[in-house]
Amino acid sequence: MLSLRFLPTTNPNSSFFHTAPHPPTSFKPFHNPISPKPRFPKPSSSSPLTVRSVLQWNRKPELAGETPRVVVITSGKGGVGKTTTTANVGLSLARLGFSVVAIDADVGLRNLDLLLGLENRVNYTVVEVLNGDCRLDQALVRDKRWSNFELLCISKPRSKLPMGFGGKALVWLVDALKSREEGCPDFIIIDCPAGIDAGFITAITPANEAVLVTTPDITSLRDADRVTGLLECDGIRDIKMIVNRVRTDMIKGEDMMSVLDVQEMLGLALLGVIPEDSEVIRSTNRGYPLVLNNPPTLAGLAFEQAAWRLVEQDSMKAVMVEEEPKKRGFFSFFGG
Amino acid sequence: MTSIWTIQFQSLPFQPSILGSKHHIPSYVVELRPEVSSSYGRLNWTRRLSLRQMFVLRAIDRSANSGCEDQSSQDETVKSEAETTIIQDPVRKLQGMISSFPPIVFGMRQRMGSHFAIGICIATAFLVMAVRVYMVRKSRYSRPGSVADLVRRGQLRSDRRGISRPLKYDDPFDNPLVKVGKNNSTVEMCGKVYRLAPVTLTEEEQAIHQKRRSRAYQWKRPTIFLKEGDSIPPDVDPDTVRWIPANHPFATTASDIDEDLAQNNVYQKHGVPFRIQAEHDALQRKLEALHSDQKLNKLVIEPGNAKDFERAFKSYSKPIERGEENFLNDHASSSKPPLSESEEMQKP
């Protein structure tokens, strides 16, 4: 399942290897890699810098499926976090070393550029490409933080997208990206607009798989079920869901549906569970995606885990249910 | 409670200091107050201990000496003779308090010493901090123009510049912030421990949900977009038609280029984009046509026509303008078309 990608020249001594003890269990906590993970220890300070940079990532997810993986991120209801998910999962994938093109297919109300902090760099959009005002490579905005991440907006806020081509335009785009000189991107992530209008149809046309974002409330769940039905009618079978804005304290007080309840209602595999986090709003306002935050936040970590599972076409095997009081040591009374 | 104790503590040194410092202790005190006199020895000992606090004692002495005159003391003696029997119990209390005095003095002395040490420590800490700040500033100024320098001057935003620093952990499932418990039933994320519950969804349940949805939602993806009022083409399934209102804010069915051309535009990898090329070509053609027709010479503003544009009230400046016009005409005919024409040509 997992493969270690390291350079043979930087292969350390065999004594450097040690297996993390993972006892066999009835279920696996988050993903299903082989349970004993061969791991590199962190390089000591005396080791040369080159080795350290190579060893920065000692475990990588293995890309499953054919590239490019065209993933549409949709929800039906608005405001559940589609764009936030697109930005964070996209940048997580880029951080994991995959080349990613994020397409903001929200025709009238695009926001992905704001979330990524790229709003000042969007000069051309797909509409200009279709009209022949620019080439496709000119419309792709490369993120300076992670150069294997590119953004493509479908239209400018005040311009109208000609619907005459329907979803064909996006299919052409995917074809054009496949045959790029610098290589086919590993992931094409499409941020779908809310609703099931013409924008939705355009966005799902080129997709092979879908990520359904929902929050644990009944309005969002009804829309999500409807959208799942439409996606399945359209032939997209690989649908996973991300449950966003989960509050374990409210679940414990039975004021919010648990993730397992949501799953029971929708019957979809879980890609991730994102806890409610005040850092999301802060990072949105800053135009700096959550997964780049240092130190990492709870929601950022959850997005990274979701991205990892997306790469491996995996799903969650266990979910966080409630917060347990942390066991405190003997000296914790004294502030220890 | 504490205030009472502090008052007592403050009042305590007065009595022995007065008694101790005045070497001419009146004999009546000794005679009439056997308890006090018996404790005098202790007071002496107390005084010996508290010798180092001379600055306190002297101040008290002065006040005591100035206040004590023989006459008044004798009057007091008379009073005290009468009251001795009454206030015997308070005297005992006082005695008890005095007996507890030496440890307090000792404590004060200790505190004095520790204060001094703490003071030295704080001063040293401040000194170290100042030196460190100085060193940091010095090292910072040593490389003007560095990225850190630009960030400090506000030219760059530190959190947005370039490739951001990679996070220190290796993978999102096993790092210092995410730790799965020993028996896989808990996970610790960002310092909080969460209980884990296994996912119970099975393949069968998933299939049941899919069937339910396929029954509930009969849908065909629209393949054709028409605006209201258009007629449906004969070979199109009416279920796959999407009607878009003519005043839809973001979507329109009208497009000024045909489908093949749009597809070619998307697939184009090199060279000038189609529309830019087309506009350039159109301009080029227009220019060439103008050249071939020798229209350029005719475009020159003729003096006769120029008169039409002149304003009547500017007649006094006519000779000068005439001169300018002649100059302009010569210049335009020799080099390039006049401004109005070139502006017109720039428009597509």
UniProtKB/TrEMBL annotation, chain A:
User: What is the protein's name according to its record?
Assistant: Septum site-determining protein minD homolog, chloroplastic
Domain CobQ/CobB/MinD/ParA nucleotide binding residues, every copy: 71-289
* Taxonomy, superkingdom: Eukaryota
* Keyword flag Signal: no
What does the similarity note say?
Belongs to the ParA family. MinD subfamily.
| GO CC annotation, single | cytoplasmic side of plasma membrane
Does ATP-binding count among this protein's keywords?
yes
GO function terms (MF aspect): ATP binding; ATP hydrolysis activity
Which NCBIfam families does this entry report, sorted A to Z? minD_bact (TIGR01968)
Q: Which UniProt keywords apply?
A: ATP-binding, Nucleotide-binding
Q: Could you state one GO biological process linked to this protein?
A: negative regulation of cell division
Protein source organism? Ziziphus jujuba (Chinese jujube)
PANTHER family referenced in this protein's UniProt entry, alphabetically: SEPTUM SITE-DETERMINING PROTEIN MIND HOMOLOG, CHLOROPLASTIC, SEPTUM SITE-DETERMINING PROTEIN MIND HOMOLOG, CHLOROPLASTIC-RELATED
TrEMBL record, chain B:
Say yes or no: keyword Membrane present: yes
Locate the transmembrane regions by residue number: 116-135
Q: Which InterPro entries match?
A: MCD1
Report the record's Gene Ontology biological process terms. chloroplast fission
Region (Disordered): which ranges?
Answer: 321-348
Q: Which GO terms describe its cellular component?
A: chloroplast inner membrane
Superkingdom of origin: Eukaryota
Q: Which UniProt keywords apply?
A: Membrane, Transmembrane, Transmembrane helix
KW Nucleus (keyword) present: no
| Protein's name according to its UniProt entry | Protein MULTIPLE CHLOROPLAST DIVISION SITE 1
Source organism per entry reads Ziziphus jujuba (Chinese jujube)
